[in-house]
Each structure stands twice: as structure tokens, then as C-alpha cells.
Amino acid sequence: MGETKGSLGEKLKIISGSACYLGYAPVMPGTFGALPGIAIYYFLWKFSAPDFLWVGLFLSVFLLGVLNYYLTPWAVVYWKSKDPSQFILDEIIGFLCVPLFYGTHQFAKTALWGFILFRVLDIIKIFPANYVDKHVGGSTGILFDDVISGGYAAFCLFLLDFFQLI
């Protein structure tokens, strides 16, 4: 049975898919939408044992990924776009991939530089992220260009650390 417009189920999908309406920001919805990723990372960094931080990050990415795959078909129809700007679960996942892939958990440095690098790289979309963004449809395309950009951001953090630039 389908949901009616304005139903509780539809409202929960909007809240989840837009990260509590951050995806509705009039400017830079992806940047605002990625901010909950910092909050999730902080919560895991602060309240989990260091040996379990990676597991917490992995589970967060996995569970948000499942939610992304579940909600994408609905979001595409609801917002009438192949990649709706309001639907920003992929931005949260993309940012969370930075500390997941980077692995060195100095929270302030990883959160600040990782966030900046992720957003810049997600906006410019270096290959293969640009290919995925343009040629892979549905949930996979919406999600994996951000995961790739998160991987690039983690690699840049590693290089900046290696050369002692941050």
C-alpha cells in the first residue's frame, strides 16, 4: 500500500533523506548535509574504545548505505530528479569514509581537513568519481561518487601527514 502525501512515513523519509532538513539549505545543501557526518564521527570518537572506532565507522557507513539504497527510488520520484540535491545521505556517508579510510584519529585534524578536502573533491569530482556521477544510475551512482571522493580526501590527508604539512 502506498503512502499518502503528508503521511508520517513520507515525513520520516524526508527527515531521513534530507538529514533533518539540512538538504534544504538554500546554498551548498551538500556541504550542510555532510555536517551530520562530523557529529557521528565525534560521537564514535568520543564514546567508543579506540579499537572499536573503525568498527563503529564501518557500521555507520553500512547502515546509512542501506538506508540510502532503500530511500533512493522514493527520493528520485519525490524530488523529481535523478540525483536530488535535498537527498544528502550520500554526503554523510562520503564524509564518514574519510576517517574510515584515513585511520588516524586525531579528531580535530581529521574532521576539519577531512571535511574541507571531501567537499572540495566531491564538488570537482576527479575520475572515476565524475564517471560514476554521470554514467552510473540509481542508488549506486548517487552514493559511490561520494565514497570515491571520501577515499581521495583520506589519501590527501595521508599525504599531508606524511609530508608534515598539517
From TrEMBL:
GO terms for biological process: phosphatidylglycerol biosynthetic process. GO terms for molecular function: phosphatidylglycerophosphatase activity. InterPro entries: PgpA (IPR026037), PgpA-like_sf (IPR036681), YutG/PgpA (IPR007686). Keywords: Membrane, Transmembrane, Transmembrane helix. SUPFAM superfamilies: YutG-like. It comes from the Bacteria. Residues 18-160 form the YutG/PgpA domain. The chain crosses the membrane at residues 21-45, 52-72, 84-103, 110-127, 147-165. This is Phosphatidylglycerophosphatase A. The lineage of its organism: Bacteria, Pseudomonadati, Thermodesulfobacteriota, Desulfobacteria, Desulfobacterales.
